[in-house]
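Known limitations

Files may contain more than one protein. Parsers should not assume a single record per file. Below, a two-record file is shown to illustrate correct handling: read the sequence, read the token line, then continue until end of file.
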Amino acid sequence: MRCVILGQGKSGTTALYYAVREQAPGAVGVFEPKDLRDLDLSGPEIVVKKMIGMFEPAEFECLARFHRRIFLVRDPRDAIVSRLLYSVWDPAFVVQKAKVSAFLEQLEAKERDPRSVSVVALYALASELQLQGGNGLEQVELLNPKTLGLWPQLRESFFLLRYEDFVAGRLAGLRRYLGLVVHHDVDVPGGHSRVSRTRASGDWRNWFTTADVEYFRPRFEPFMSAFGYAPGWSLPVRPTINPDHASRYAERLVVRLRQELQPGAVRT
């Protein structure tokens, strides 16, 4: 079985990649190749995770070489929050204590009063602090249209999987398609375990403010409509944000990346 998983960043592609590999232990695994044309697709078993942001039209010819093809999508409202928190995985950022403290302090303020700081404002801060992922809003402006443009060309040959169904264990259709009993609670190896945060859906409601709804609604509804997401935008009266999935998660990423860098790299 040759299987390719195509999806946006922070859409669960890493977990799905390892879930498939777990049930196909003899398969060669290729994690985020730059170009599918560089792969040896002559062998009988290979599992490939390819990011939509890195997918180029010239790679279309390679897709027919795979027996199983999965197109993974996620509610863009949850994805935008996940991208924000993962943006701290930035070598140039984590070594600057003052910038790290400024970002974590705003996350902590958001936790204390979720309506006090908008997601858009947090992205503005990330951009001001020069995080690599601080331009996430601009990236989505390009990535969602690219995803929407790809899907009509691939829908006849790809199995559409929503992240929300994957993490909830609603996998009957995927299992039939793959011929494998994949599981949603797969263990992600240490090197890639950092990408895992909540493994849940719908937490965007606790993060978004009314200003965020006004900003994101016209930008996200075409994507949501195309992939069957309900258009509801109501927010809870008393939102709550778990620090383990917010400031503490970001802090763990900072600490981990600092450990991977050379000693003495951290500066004020």
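...continuing to the second record:
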Amino acid sequence: MKIPYINILLFVLTFISTLTVGAMHEGINVFEEPIKIYKGLPFSIALLLILLFHEFSHYLASKKHRIEASLPYFIPVPPPLSLFGTFGAVIRMKSPITTKNALIDIGASGPIAGFIISVIATIIGLSFSRIAPVQDTANLISLGDSLLFKGLTGLIIGTVPDDHDVYLHSVALAGWIGFFVTSLNLIPIGQLDGGHILYALLGEKHAMVSKLLVGVMFLMGFLLWEGWIIWGVLLIVLGFRHPPIVYSELPLDPGRKIIGWISLAIFVLTFTPIPIKIV
């Protein structure tokens, strides 16, 4: 078996970049105190586990349906170019997807697996997070809340006073990123994971829904967060249409339909309309 040197190198570089971000979150200047970079381990391990479960679930689902796919390619992005140390990971599909059932399995398996690990990381991290006065966090980046993250915060931390905010433990931050990545992947447009799922559920209607949702994304970009405009442009470049399935006449199993709608429900729960803002 050929050793996947590029995949290994990218993973190591992503580990280093996320380790650096995690240490910086703990207040460490890694240039002045490089030996203390180990303090970024909780963040790095939690985030990499989320990404690994996500991508390898795609990979294993592809193997299950005898569809050729690459191992994950991690995307390292050192700070300050990225607040998270990575832009995630991708796998390349090397052969066409054969059935709607395979499309649901491959499209939904990654987000669901990553979502489960994100929930665990969020619960653990919020248990170690603290409430701080707003003036103590002034001029820092504030993260928006998805429905689920807001609910878990209220359940674990309780009510946050108006003049206070939650200072996330690094593992909770990894969980937040996991939710954010899950929601981005589950946007039901084009060839994103959500696009795969929507195509399996709706067939050719998928393209019309994709165009409508890109319009909504541009509207959110003007009204809520400029980053959605960038995503809208990117999705236009990637295209609205989905490659055809080899055996499109084969029906979708009822159980796979349920998994598909559960995945889209996860999208709603994890979607953050205003992900990032300056306090």
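Parsers that stop after the first record will miss the second one. For reference, the second record is described as follows. Residues 100-127 form the longest helix (28 residues).
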